[in-house]
Amino acid sequence: MKRQVTINGRSVEVEFEGKEQIRFAHRAPGQPEVAGEASILEVEPGIYSVLWSGRSFEARVLLNAGKGVVDIGPHHYRVEVADPRELAAASTAGAGAGRQEITAPMPGRVIRILVEEGQPVQAGQGIVVVEAMKMQNEMQSPKQGTVVSIRAREGASVAASEVLAVVE
Amino acid sequence: MFRKVLVANRGEIAVRLLRALRELRIASVAVYSDADRAALHVRMADEAVHIGPAPSSESYLRGDRILEAAIATGAQAIHPGYGFLSENAGFAEACEDAGVVFVGPSARSIAAMGLKTEARQMAMEAGVPVVPGSEEPVRDLGRALTIAGEIGYPLMLKAAAGGGGKGMRRVYREADLAAALRDAASEAQRSFNNGDVYIEKLVENPRHIEVQVLGDKWGHMIHLGERECSLQRRHQKLVEECPSPFVAMRPDLRHAMGEAAVRVARAGGYYNAGTVEFLVDGDGRFYFLEMNARLQVEHPVTELVTGLDLVHWQLRIAAGERLSVDQYAVRWNGSAIECRICAEDPDNNFLPSPGLIRQIERPSGPGVRLDSGVYPGWTVPVEYDPLLAKVVAWAETRPLALDRMRRALAEYSVQGIKTNLSFFRQVMEDKDFRDGAIHTGYIDQWLRTRPPAAEDDGCQVIAALVAAIHSRRAPVPVAEAPAGASPWRTQGRERVLR
Question: Which among B207, B254, B294, B316 is annotated as catalytic?
C-alpha cells in the first residue's frame, strides 16, 4: 500500500505491507530511500509500539480525516495522509483552488470582525474573533486573497463548522 | 472541624478539594451543571446536587442555588476553589449571613482586594512599592492622555476588576492610547461586568513572582515563599515553579518579598490562604500587582516544596483552628515545577479543543503528582475553561525537577482531543528556560521565533509510517457516550485504589 504523507510541511512517500511485521519503504525527495522491516503493534487505541533496527518507539497518533498529529517522545509531527491515486484525481479536477471558507471550529460567540468585505488579506491575517471556552480565538485567513463575504455578525452565537467568512 | 463541606467548583480543582476532604474524613457535597453530570468531581463526591444548565452564569456562578444546596445537604462550609465564586464578596457575605462558613477570607477582605485600585492603595499605605500609575479608574480619553503624559510610555491598561489577562492592553505610543482604552474597557465590561480601566507604567520584560501567605483568624500570619509564574502566554500562566530560579540566587529577596506580602495581607485584615503577586525587574526591584484572595491554580508547587497541604490548612483555618506553623519553621526543600495541561491545539494558535477523550496514559513514578479532572470516556465541555490537568514534578534540585517533568510529559498522553502536551515537551528543552532566563513575554516571543526542534530521522520515518498505517484503519465509531454509561469501568476501580 502506498501513501503520500505530508510531515511537518514536507511531502514523503510511504509504502508498506504486512500486519504486525511490516515491510516498508520511506522515500523523501533528495534523500536516500529508507527501507526495512519493523514490528508495529497498536497497543492501545491510537498508540503504537514500534520496534525497528534495535530501537523502541512509542508513537501516539491523532488523525481526523487523514489529518492530525503524531507524537514520539518529545518529537511532535503535524501529518496529513493521502492516497496518491486520489491526489492525482484531485489535481486533474482542479479542486482545492480559489475559494476558502473560514469556519467556526466549535460553538462560540463572535466577538469582533477584523476585516471588511472586499478587503485584501494576507495568509495568517486575523479575520474574525470567536470566544469559546472562555478564550478569545482569532480565526485566520488560510491564504492570501480577498474577503469576498462575511457571514458572521458581531455578538452572534455560532455553531461548530458554521461559515464565518469566505476568502478567495 | 467540619463534618460536611460543599465544593462549589468543577474540574481538576474540585477533584483536588474532594481529595483533601476525604483525607480529613469530612463528608463532601459536589454541585454540577447539566454538562457535568458524568464529571469526575461528581463521581468522587459523597453527595451531589444539580444546580442548573451548562452555562456557568446559570450554574457555577449561581451563588443562591449553591448556598441552597449547602443548607439542604447540611454542609457546614463551602470551599469555592478558584475562579467562579471564589472572589465574589457578595457570595462570601451571603454565606456568612446564612451561617455557612466560606472557606476563604472575610467578605470585607475580598471586597478590598478585589478592586485593584483599592488594593494598590492599601499596599502603598503598608509601605509596599507599587508600579507608578493612575490611582483611580480612568473614565475618559482626556484624563487618560494627561496621566499617560505624567507617567510616560510605555504603558499598561488594566481592568480594575480584572484578572487572567482580560481587559489588558500595552500602549507604546500616544497615538494608540484611544483604541487601546476603548478595547480594554469593552473587554473588561464583557468579562467582569465592570468597564473600569486604570493606567500603569509598563515594566519591560518583567518577571511575575508571587508569594503565598497563610493566616488564621487569630492574627497569626506567615508566608510560604514565592512561585515563579513568568512563563505565560497572553497573560495566562503556563508553567510555575517553586522556588523561583531568580529568587533562589538572591536569598535576601525571598525574605523581603515575603515580609512585604504579609504586610499587604495584614493591611487587608486577611485570613486563610492568599497570594500576593509582584512584578520583578531585572535588578530585583519588586512592585505589588494584586492580591488573589483564594487558592491559586499553581498551589501544588508550594505544597511539594514546603511539605504543607494548603487545602488542609484552608479548612482548618476556616473551622477556627490556630495555624500552628511559625515562620521560622517553614523550610523550602528541593524544587517543584507545574505544567498546565489544556485542551488546546498548539499547532493551531492554541485554539480550544473540546470533545471526547478516548484514552489517557498517566504519568507517575517518583516525584510526580497529577491533579487531573478528566478520565477516558469523558467529553470535555465547551462551556468551561480548557484546563484538563496539572502535572507537577519535584526533585532535590531545579535541573533534576525539569528533567523529571520532561520524563513525566513523555509518559503522559491524552487521545481523542488536542492538548498542549507537545508544547510543554518543547519548552522543557529550551535553553533559556533551563537557565531561568525568562520574563512574562518570553513565551509569546518564543512562539514567534523558536528554533525548529532537534531532528531525529528515525522518529520522522516512524511517524510517517505509523500515520500511514493508522489512516488505513476505519475510524472507530464512537457514539457520544451517554452520561454515566462510560465503557471505562476500570477507572472507578483505579480511583478507589488511589
Answer: B294
Chain B residue with CA closest to A18: the answer is B469
Domain contains B472: no
- The C-alpha of A99 sits at a distance from chain B's nearest C-alpha, in angstroms, of 21
Q: Quick one: fold of A97-167?
A: OB fold (Dihydrolipoamide Acetyltransferase, E2P) (2.40.50)
Is B294 assigned a catalytic role? yes
Nearest to B410 among A24, A46, A74 (CB): A74
- Interface touch A74/B426, C-beta < 8 Å: yes
pLDDT tens digit at each of 498 positions of chain B:
999 999 999 999 999 999 999 999 999 999 999 999 999 999 999 999 999 999 999 999 999 999 999 999 999 999 999 999 999 999 999 999 999 999 999 999 999 998 877 898 899 999 999 988 887 888 888 889 999 988 888 999 988 887 667 788 889 999 999 999 998 888 888 888 888 898 988 888 899 999 999 999 999 999 999 999 999 998 899 999 999 999 999 989 999 999 999 999 999 899 999 999 999 998 899 999 999 999 999 999 999 999 999 999 999 999 999 999 999 999 999 999 999 999 999 988 899 999 999 999 999 999 999 999 999 999 999 999 999 999 999 999 999 999 999 999 999 999 999 999 999 999 999 999 999 999 999 999 999 888 777 788 889 999 999 999 998 875 544 433 333 333 333 333 333 343
Taking a contact as any Cβ pair under 8 Å apart, which residues of chain A between 83 and 112 contact chain B? 105-108
Can you tell me the distance from the alpha carbon of A114 to that of A126, in angstroms, rounded to the nearest whole number? 7
Are residues B467 and A76, on separate chains, in Cβ contact within 8 Å? no
Closest-CA residue of chain A to B381: A133
- B469 contacts in A (CB within 8 Å)? 16, 22, 40, 48
User: How close, in Å, is residue A81 to chain B by CA atoms?
Assistant: 6
Domain for residue B491, yes or no? no
Phi, psi of A36 (to 5 degrees): 175, -165
pTM of the model: 0.83
CATH class of A2-85: mainly beta
Domain assignment of residue B156, given as a range? 132-201
Cell digits of residue B449:
521565533
